[in-house]
Amino acid sequence: MRPADGSSLARLRVAGLVAAHAVTYAATVAVLVGTGAAVLGIATGGGFARVKVLLFLAGLAMMAYATARLWPRSPSDLESNTVDGVTVDGRSIPKVPDRTRFQRFVRSLPPSRWLPPAPPTKRVTPAGKLFVASVLVLLASYLLEAQFGIV
Predict the structure, then answer these.
(1) DSSP string, 20-59
(2) Tens digits of per-residue pLDDT, 49-63?
(3) Domain boundaries, given as residue ranges, for the chain
(4) Residue closest to 25 by CA, chosen among 135, 100, 132
(5) Could you say which DSSP state residue 125 is in?
(6) What is the DSSP letter of 83?
(7) Which residue, among 138, 143, 133, 127, has the nearest Cα to 66 in the 3D structure?
(8) Contact, 123 vs 97, CB < 8 A?
(9) What is the DSSP letter of 91?
């Protein structure tokens, strides 16, 4: 028996889908940035101390960029202007969530590939996913210093 659209179980299912897709995207970005920082830090002779600094700088830059992208352009951006998946200005929200090759790559990774896409009006924007990824990158930098003692 499927829950009704307005039930709390259906809302919880949608929230789980949205979170799974956002966390998959953010973790993929964080792993790629971490790998790049590790390769660059070790290749330049700085070791893990340089990796930590590169992770911090990359996380800070990603967070600044994501914040700028999330910032509303006008007061009308703060209002909900979607009706049945179509915005008031005439642009429709795409039914297919994957627009770039990277987004298609992330969508092919588990658990996202096993899950249906979230409803178009409930999806986290790429800038929102990038913000979550920046928090993960900053967390990796922090853990290198606080847990592993890399100064």
Answers:
(1) HHHHHHHHHHHHHHHHHHHHHHHHTT-HHHHHHHHHHHHH
(2) 999 999 999 999 999
(3) 9-71+100-146
(4) 132
(5) P
(6) E
(7) 127
(8) yes
(9) P
